[in-house]
Amino acid sequence: MNGAPRTALRASALGLTLALGTLSLSGPAHAEEPMPNNQGASTEEHGGRDSTGIYAAARIQYSGSVTKDGSPGNVRPADVNWTPPPCWYAPYLGAKDFKKKMSEDLDRQLNTPGMGGTAGSALGQTKRHYEDEFGWDGSPGYKDYNVENDGKGMFWAGVENPDEPDYLKRTSCTDLPFWVENGQAPPARYEEAIKPEMLAALAYQHMELPDTKVTLAPEAETKVNLPTWAWLDKAVFDEVQATAAINVPGFNIQATTTAKPVALKLQPGTEDAETYPASGECVINADGSIGEPYAKGKAAETPPCGLKYLRSSGNGTYKLQATITWDIAWTGTGGTGGDLPNGTFGNEQAVTVHEIQAINR
């Protein structure tokens, strides 16, 4: 097949994907009850169904410290150029179910009034591709939708990431559905075929970090030029995990993304302040805590983690921003694993700063 017909086939694939509908993850995800550790929920994000009642087999199951409704989590990658996959190829349907679904959609589109020209030709070639072994270099055709091998594999198809804002990226997995034998890897040319590192990135995207409030002393109200101590106890400041998995006949992979707290950055909410250390970044201690709790008799000491306001907040408050940096790594099926960009998550805390009142005698 020369380049022009192949381009036409690829162009028609997007229309077919939209017509099939079951691989679009734009519908609400299904959430179960939170897990016992109260750090998240078990969530399934998958396609919808149409009048045939056929469900897409492509399904990602999220568990651990993830959002309950399948929405993006609260962790923000420190690398602004990093993004999770906008789309991917994943197991779709067995041969018999695929034949029923695809043949109905092809016939409906081919019989649409006015269908002709390049689009009609591409649809006709797609029909021949699945019915009459019409293929091209690297993409052999199928006989009767490969139903003789039903149960021995699945057709894979493009899946959109519903949380990808760029429409062109989200709909860029436009190759026609292709067959993969059970236990076999997808052909290497399908670079976007789902794999553990992609699941790790999607688990990252759905991860929910704990809403940890920094302990301050003095708490909420302090005075001008008085050092304020800040700390986080290990008991409320520990690593979290999120897992993403796909489990279908002949194909089972998963990845677990782990976030470990490594630093706390304090931003006083005003330029009239100093931080300890001067960078405002408090590193994690050997015992997993950050900073040092204030103790009686330390009022004149410099805190290892904290701040000092140089001007009163007047009738208002300063918005102290406490941002935690998390080291993100992942492990997955087959001994895979690696690092992901650090993540950040911050909270605002209102701080009232009073002038020190002098007493004249």
What is this structure, in a nutshell?
This protein has 361 residues and is of the alpha+beta class.
Written account of the structure:
- The protein has 361 residues and is an alpha+beta fold.
- It is built from 5 helices and 18 strands.
- β1 and β2 form a beta hairpin.
- The radius of gyration is 28 Å and the shape is elongated.
Helix-strand topology string: HEEEEEHHEHEHEEEEEEEEEEE
Overall pLDDT score: 84
Please report the total strand number as a whole number.
18
Q: Unreliable segments (pLDDT under 50, ≥5 consecutive)? A: 1-8, 17-40, 45-56
What is the terminal separation in angstroms? Answer: 99 Å
Structural class: alpha+beta
Number of separate helices:
5
Helix content: 10-25%
Shape: elongated
Q: Cα-atom Rg, whole angstroms? A: 28 Å
Strand content: 25-35%
Main sheet characteristics? 10 strands, mixed
Supply the key terms.
361 residues; alpha+beta; ten-stranded mixed sheet; five-stranded antiparallel sheet; 5 helices; 18 strands; disordered N terminus
SSE layout:
Blueprint: H1 3-20, E1 30-34, E2 41-46, E3 59-64, E4 76-77, E5 87-93, H2 95-110, H3 117-131, E6 153-160, H4 167-170, E7 178-181, H5 196-206, E8 215-217, E9 221-223, E10 228-232, E11 240-248, E12 251-267, E13 273-276, E14 281-283, E15 290-291, E16 306-309, E17 318-332, E18 336-354
Parallel strand pairs: 9-18
Antiparallel strand pairs: 1-2, 2-3, 3-11, 4-18, 5-6, 6-7, 8-10, 10-15, 10-16, 11-12, 12-14, 12-17, 13-16, 17-18
Helix pairs in contact: 1-3, 2-3
